[in-house]
Design brief:
65% of the residues lie in helices and 11% in strands. The protein has 313 residues and is an alpha+beta fold. Keywords: Ion transport, Membrane, Transmembrane, Transmembrane helix, Transport, Zinc, Zinc transport.
Length: 313
């Protein structure tokens, strides 16, 4: 019988615990200022301020989803979920991206209406509140960038960077209008911010899709993994190699390993696990040893022994 070996990593639990605290701090800070900005935007009749406030409120929701997802992802594995709930992080990021697309469409629609019929805007209020919002967003972005860079945090950071750009647009619009410029700059700058956010949202959507479709993680080349394992003494070849992500910080691999002799497996296995963990960041591996001579015999049609390995054709 071929034996299977498993190597499980559990470092993601600590990562997600720290991620949850980071997102919770950002949630409280962002929500508090968003409420202030909504009232200021209504008083100043500024779409730049209201769009920035809208971004911040969606940030609050995204940060809440992120914190909840990080809490779920920190749950240990169970019989029903043998890998734990690490994919909760990915689902949280997907929710944030989709929600951001909806916000972008709404703000762009409002901006077009205001370009056609531009209302009076209180430039002084926009400049003041936009400046305070810029400071708040810089602090929140700094906190998130210093935390663990999981996909969940990247999704939340996408929203915050959108807010930061929105605050810059609000400050610019407020300054232009305050010093006598046209009020139409308010909706024009809002559209510009939407375009910038859209680019980042599309990139994050690509990363989320890669994980959900179980694609090979970014930065890992299967050929390099196979070659590195094959260089270990006693390993003839590696085949049926599959690499995928459980979350943005946890990767898994399954493969069949051809050995010169099955008696070498207990020596080879720890070396392979070390290479996978230290060189490629793959914490969970499922490796099946096979006798190289027997497998090659199966391939050329000589026949397999009683413990012959199966071959995918």
């Amino acid at each position: 019988m071929s034996e299977h070996s498993h190597d499980h990593g559990h470092a993601h639990h600590n990562h997600n615990h720290g991620t949850g605290k980071t997102l919770l701090f950002a949630l409280v800070f962002t929500t508090a200022f968003a409420i202030v900005e909504v009232f200021a935007g209504l008083m100043a009749n500024s779409l730049a301020l209201l769009s920035d406030a809208g971004h911040m409120l969606t940030d609050s929701l995204s940060l809440a989803v992120g914190a909840f997802s990080a809490w779920l992802a920190n749950k240990p594995a169970s019989r029903r979920h043998s890998f734990g709930l690490q994919r909760a992080e990915v689902l949280g990021a997907l929710f944030n991206v989709i929600f951001m697309f909806l916000v972008i469409v709404y703000i762009a629609y409002e901006a077009i209406l205001r370009m056609l019929d531009t209302p009076e805007v209180d430039g002084g209020t926009v400049l003041l509140i936009g400046g305070l919002g810029l400071l708040v967003n810089i602090i929140v972005a700094w906190v998130l960038m210093r935390g663990e860079q999981t996909m969940n945090v990247r999704g939340a950071l996408l929203h915050v960077m959108g807010d930061l750009l929105g605050s810059v647009a609000a400050v610019a619009a407020g300054a232009i209008i305050y010093f006598g410029g046209p009020a139409i700059m308010d909706p024009i700058l809002s559209v510009f911010v939407c375009v910038l956010i859209l680019v980042s949202a599309v990139r994050l959507l690509g990363a989320v899709t890669r994980v959900l479709m179980e694609g090979v993680p970014q930065g890992i080349e299967p050929g390099d993994v196979s070659q590195a394992l094959s260089e270990i003494e006693g390993v003839r070849a590696v085949h049926d190699l599959h690499i995928w992500s459980l979350s943005s910080t946890s990767h898994a691999m399954a493969a069949h390993v051809d050995l010169d002799a099955m008696t070498q497996w207990h020596r080879v296995l720890p070396q392979m696990q070390t290479v996978l963990r230290e060189r490629f960041g793959i914490e969970h591996s499922t490796l099946q040893p096979e006798d190289a001579e027997i497998r090659l015999g199966c391939v050329v049609g000589v026949g397999c022994g009683s413990d012959g390995a199966h071959v995918h054709r």
